[in-house]
Give the backbone structure.
Amino acid sequence: MEITITKTTTPKTMPPEDKLGFGKVFSDHMFIMEYEHGKGWQNARIVPFGRIDLHPASTVLHYGAEIFEGLKAYRRADGGVQLFRPMENIRRMNRSAERMCLPLIDEQEALDILTTFVKMEEKWVPHSFGTSLYLRPFMFGNDESLGVHMPHHATFMIIASPSGSYYAEGINPVGIMIESEDVRAVRGGTGFAKCGGNYAASTRAGERANQKGYSQVLWLDGVERKYIEEVGAMNVMFKINGEIITPALTGSILPGITRMSCIEVLRDMGYEVSERLLSIDELTDAMKNGTLEEAWGCGTAAVVSPIGRLCYQDVEYPVNNGKIGEITQKLYDTLTGIQWGKIEDKYNWIVRL
Ligand SMILES: *Cc1c(COP(=O)(O)O)cnc(C)c1O
């Protein structure tokens, strides 16, 4: 696939690395290409970052046909830039696209696009440990008509945002509220797809949790509100009575790449990890009788995020006295070590540019 490049004539400078925050600053360029049914993907180009034009009847604005991915470009201590398991993001994007009737992208072409784009934006990969260039590939249906059917036109883009360290103030365990009213997804629905609509439906519960002083919600399954699913934008893991448990991928949970990597690292360290159904009753029992030893979320943004408090039906339970647990710390050290190129990548997860 040929990518046309138009360089900006007004390059920007990066703000100080400790002032970046998340998703607020964007790099100089963006990638964009369009799909037309029968013709495939066309007009792949990198252009100056800027606004895009949408027809008021565009499918995405009315019927929510949108999917996205999130991954990071990391600066190694030796100055090089690398990606972490990017092919897993590309494969997941195609699975999301398939669910939402959006067009697929050839895996190898998608990787070429991603690496070409990141190379072009190299100067936007910050240098301090914990910072990164957050990459946001996304795709939306873009027919210029209100008819309800599979979109015949789509747009795929990648934007990039230099982001600060998630743990600029140190790793502080978070408070999580277990949501017993709203649900995020059901089996057969779009829970396993990374689509904007899942987030739109989750916002209300997230706001309620924030108002009560919790940073995110922990979702229960959409049918019985009985089984633990995942945290807002992270998967979740528990250590109960020596057993490391993470909810099985039943179709309503987002199959996180950090989740998958945690499982592989833990098994490699000799721990057993159960991917199974975990009921809220089992979890509350463990919280009451003190057998819940550790709990943490895992996702690209935070890598791992220790959970220090869990609230269910207005009762708050402390987890590990509000401190980061031993396994959580080990996972954090191992994954960030590989991602920022500080320790050897024996798993072959890194793609260096
Ligand atoms: C992206 C995402 C995750 C984490 O996936 P990673 O690939 O580990 O970043 C978990 N849950 C939801 C709902 C997500 O959107």
The mean pLDDT is 96. Residues 196-211 form the longest helix (16 residues). Residues 70, 194, 230, 233-235, 254, 256-259, 299-300 surround pyridoxal-5'-phosphate (CB under 6 Å). The longest strand covers residues 153-163.
